[in-house]
Amino acid sequence: MKQSQLLKGVLEGCVLLIIGQGEIYGYELMQRLHAYGFTSVVGGTLYPLLTKLETQGQIAGNLRTSPDGPDRKYFRLTTSGVKAGHDFERQWAELRAQVAAVVEDKNK
Fold it and tell me: What's the pTM value of the predicted model, to 2 decimals?
């Protein structure tokens, strides 16, 4: 299985968790993802995801003037986004435990 297929399933949750740490604009979010090792994430992946999350009401964005160029859209979690982030954490913990059990059993 390609890493991109695995990433597709968890990127949304990771984005919600990062935004949950505090307001952030798109490019800064991409830099944060890269710092976590998600170096294959590009604008063509991230920005449509942010639009989707905003349309679903999980994040809210507002434009702010930037001293370094064009205005920036900063995102924050909504109540729905906080819940979705918690749901992701729970689901990830369950999946992680299930995969670990399979891997550990294989290595016995």
Answer: 0.91
